Amino acid sequence: MTNEGKATPNKCTSETMTGLPQLTGIPVAVMVAALSLVGTSIAPSEESQYSLDNQSKDEKCLSQDVTMETEHVSQQVTQSTPAVHSDEKSTQDKDETASDIEKHQDTPKSRPVSELIKENILQQEKLKHPDLTKPLETKPNGVLEQVQTVKVAQMLAAFDSHKKSPEKALERKPSVRKDMFKRVVRASKFRHVFGQAVKNDQCYDDIRVSRVTWDSSFCAVNPKFVALIIEASGGGAFLVLPLHKTGRIDKAYPTVCGHTGPVLDIDWCPHNDQVIASGSEDCTVMVWQIPENGLVTNLSEPVVVLEGHSKRVGIITWHPTARNVLLSAGCDNLIIIWNVGTGEAMIQLEEMHPDVIFSACWNRNGSLICTACKDKTIRIIDPRKEEVIGEKEKAHEGARPMRAIFLSDGNIFTTGFSRMSERQLALWNPQAMDEPITVHEMDTSNGVLLPFYDPDTSVVYLCGKGDSSIRYFEITDEAPFVHYLNSFASKEPQRGMGYMPKRGLDVNKCEIARFYKLHERKCEPIIMTVPRKSDLFQDDLYPDTAGPDCAIEAEDWFEGKDGEPILISLKNGYVPGKNRDLKVVKKNILDNKLSNTTEKTGPANKCASSIVSTAIWEKKYFMFGGKETLLVCLTVIRQMIKVSQ
């Protein structure tokens, strides 16, 4: 005992290190690293090495973190050093250290680590107690481990207090990523829609598609016929082909060639698959009736000619629910709504558009129309009141043409160009046209985007003129509201596009859309299909769709009545019924002519004139189609021969 008391200074420093295990809460490696900074050459003794070996694996894992928190730990080192003068003093010192810990926890002070270690060494040198290491040696191993575990717990608590905020941030990141993943991978039955072009033998080859510089589709399709605007010398013409008439089309095939200028737009009547309207550069609108089995000879006499525009007519569209109501828009900035049954212009919307009208579209029940004009303004018009009920200036700031269509829920979908000539698509609420619901920028191509909308599935197909792809989007009530689905790409650019109504699709093959892509010399059908394993009818893909029956008559609509589309089921496939004959009754014109002729002629000629008028009516009946027209015409001819005799 006395020899240990007369220790040399070097030995005293070793004894000092033997006292280090009393600082059981701090790893020895940390103390050695700290002492090396001070400049002391103190090496750990056997007892300190023994305490280091007895440390748990958790302390070793935390040793790297301890070096980063040395200032915080050093405070605990000085506070937790026990005085070993005597048993009585030790209890008092413990109380003092506990009170110091509480004070320092309340008011933490920052001191250099080197000063704290030097102070600890000086205190232990002053003690020089002979039984310095005995209290540690006499303690059983269990007590030592217990003290160490307590100190480690304190250290963990101290470190956890600083690491709470980073750990929480790390925990939040995966949840955000999961939410983003859920948003990107959206559940939709149209996610896997794919397009496929038909084989060459099912295309329409050797067709001279029109080269007119006008941004229309140049093609119109219904369940019976496909109509294509073609190049023609000496006027305008378009082909009308039965759907089954595929392959090479003869150059001498009959055409519809009544216009004296190039045809700009065509549209099939939704209520009669044999009636088609056309607008031309000759400032006229003509309505044609196609024979049931297609053309046999050139058709040059229309059912009715609608004259009222002073410049070329570039937009033609039929009313969706009213019979014989047709809208036409020309480069004279005028919109005319016709009653085809009488050949009269019932409504003229003047002074609403200061520039060329790019597009016009009816809403679902035909009570409103939406127009896009060259002045970059979208207008919502009530045609019967002849007033604009909503408009948005600079909907798309680019100078290229815009398109605007109504959706089934009443919103408006537009395509256009930005100021930097980037193609855009946007969604608008007619009740709040100040800001769009959403805007998407697509690419920097120059082709005008032609939108084709399926109201049953809320899918919009965008076909750009000059592009070689068809992109389709699903419109929902969830952000971002317009969801990109997929695209169909091909090699050759498209000069026009036709869109088949839903009732003309093959439901047994899960076909949800069919396009007729116009190349320079042919027309290529493209089928959009939803992959399904079952051969049964898919109710979710084919809800009830608009049928060929009209909801109201033209006179009722002009009086202010509206009618929703009459829906039909496609479960057993669409079976086309007998088409109603288009009857044009020009009462005023015919009555005036007949009254003038009867005044100038005698009674014998009156009978002849009445028979001629009857012949005119029967001729119209013959033109519009009927089963007994031949017999009726023969009887009329016989009556005329008898009168002449």
TrEMBL record:
<dbReference type="InterPro" id="IPR036322">
    <property type="entry name" value="WD40_repeat_dom_sf"/>
</dbReference>
<dbReference type="GO" id="GO:0007015">
    <property type="term" value="P:actin filament organization"/>
</dbReference>
<dbReference type="Pfam" id="PF00400">
    <property type="entry name" value="WD40"/>
</dbReference>
<feature type="domain" description="DUF1899">
    <location>
        <begin position="183"/>
        <end position="247"/>
    </location>
</feature>
<dbReference type="GO" id="GO:0001755">
    <property type="term" value="P:neural crest cell migration"/>
</dbReference>
<feature type="compositionally biased region" description="Basic and acidic residues">
    <location>
        <begin position="85"/>
        <end position="109"/>
    </location>
</feature>
<dbReference type="InterPro" id="IPR015943">
    <property type="entry name" value="WD40/YVTN_repeat-like_dom_sf"/>
</dbReference>
<dbReference type="InterPro" id="IPR015505">
    <property type="entry name" value="Coronin"/>
</dbReference>
<keyword id="KW-0853">WD repeat</keyword>
<feature type="repeat" description="WD">
    <location>
        <begin position="256"/>
        <end position="298"/>
    </location>
</feature>
<dbReference type="InterPro" id="IPR001680">
    <property type="entry name" value="WD40_rpt"/>
</dbReference>
<comment type="similarity">
    <text>Belongs to the WD repeat coronin family.</text>
</comment>
<keyword id="KW-0677">Repeat</keyword>
<dbReference type="Pfam" id="PF16300">
    <property type="entry name" value="WD40_4"/>
</dbReference>
<dbReference type="Pfam" id="PF08953">
    <property type="entry name" value="DUF1899"/>
</dbReference>
<feature type="compositionally biased region" description="Polar residues">
    <location>
        <begin position="44"/>
        <end position="54"/>
    </location>
</feature>
<feature type="repeat" description="WD">
    <location>
        <begin position="306"/>
        <end position="348"/>
    </location>
</feature>
<feature type="compositionally biased region" description="Polar residues">
    <location>
        <begin position="73"/>
        <end position="83"/>
    </location>
</feature>
<dbReference type="InterPro" id="IPR015048">
    <property type="entry name" value="DUF1899"/>
</dbReference>
<protein>
    <recommendedName>
        <fullName>Coronin</fullName>
    </recommendedName>
</protein>
<feature type="region of interest" description="Disordered">
    <location>
        <begin position="44"/>
        <end position="115"/>
    </location>
</feature>
<keyword id="KW-0175">Coiled coil</keyword>
<dbReference type="GO" id="GO:0051015">
    <property type="term" value="F:actin filament binding"/>
</dbReference>
<dbReference type="InterPro" id="IPR019775">
    <property type="entry name" value="WD40_repeat_CS"/>
</dbReference>
